[in-house]
Amino acid sequence: MADFSGFSHGMGIGGWLTNYKRFNVLPDEWKTRLSPGDFEHFATYITRRDIDYIASLGMDHIRLGFDQVVLEAGPGEYRGEIWEHIDRFCDWCRAAGVNIVLNLHKAVGNYCDIPSAVTLMESPELQERFIAVWVAFEKRYSGRPEIVFELLNEVNETRESDIENWNRLAARTIRAIRELNPSRRIVIGGTCANSCDRLRFLPEFDDNVIYTWHFYFPYEFTHQQGVLQPAPLCYNRRMPYPGDIEIYRDFRRFVYRDENPYPDDGRMDSNVLRRAMAPAFEYQAAHPGRTVWCGEFGTIRHCPLEWRENYMRDVISLLLEHRTPYCVWNYLSTPNDGNRFSLVDDDRREILSPRLAAVIRGEITA
Q1: First to last CA, the chain
Q2: Assessment of whether the complete model's pTM goes beyond 0.85
Q3: How high is the pLDDT of residue 324?
Q4: Which of 8, 24, 320, 336 has the most crowded Cβ, counting Cβ within 10 A?
Q5: Is residue 12 classed as helix, strand or coil in its secondary structure?
Q6: What tens digit of pLDDT does each residue of 192-206 get?
Q7: What is the mean pLDDT of residues 135-145?
Q8: 81 is a catalytic site residue
Q9: Looking at 72, 150, 220, 296, which residue is catalytic?
Q10: For residue 82, what is the enclosing H or E element?
Q11: Would residue 154 show up in a list of annotated catalytic residues for this protein?
């Protein structure tokens, strides 16, 4: 596989410029409004100390998620104070010796947890705004080759037509960036929330494009007892990892009325994960000239720590086996984020255990 030097193992930052509120409890007219409290949060939540600490854990890159409505006061109109927060973040990273992925986490018309009346895939106006955002980023950071642009966190749509719509929009955005910078490294994922089985639908772009996928399988484990998605909220049960497959079968039968879930498995363990990851590894093998990066995976915060450690160990072991660079999700989540995937505690902002610290930087033991 093509090299992705300086991006072998990283950590994502959510909860700062994205996922700063639990949007699903807000009325529609408030979901994309920014309050005085939001701006206070943006100004104080992440500091240089956090970046230095992430670097001290051995991470070589940080993936920063931001929302379009946080940066954009209106079409083509950007908030100077948000630019300044991102500028400072980039400078902190440079001083700490870590590389950067700037990730548009939620675009107008493509919010993970907010249904859109008009979607990004369907609206020419929203697409022009989307492209303009990335042109603005290239103009601002033209002299910073250590910064990688990730065009969109997860494309929501799953319809067949959305594959081509997204591929066309991605190609147009890449062309607009390339007019300013032929060598900017750009990350592209597929539809269905960057599912690894959608990599195969991405066209070949240029040599400076990185192809990404996310991994949250099995969903009933990684999102167990979560409050944003109806299925784990409905089932409301702790799911051990590794463990007997029967509890996982019961989840699928109870929630989805699946008559024969996990038919070939006797235990939930790394063998099940390996089969779930197979499309990504097959894609890598079929396209040895392309750079493939697993840009996001993790487990919900209230999952027992030992189970979280076990799961991260097995996922990262498989990624290392296939020489796949990766980025874990995530550093810290606010209490307002319904899916808290924090890897550090709230008060001291220190990693939850020495074992977890070793695992996420790729030091794998039993």
Answers
A1: 27
A2: yes
A3: 97
A4: 8
A5: strand
A6: 999 999 999 999 999
A7: 97
A8: no
A9: 296
A10: helix 80-96
A11: yes
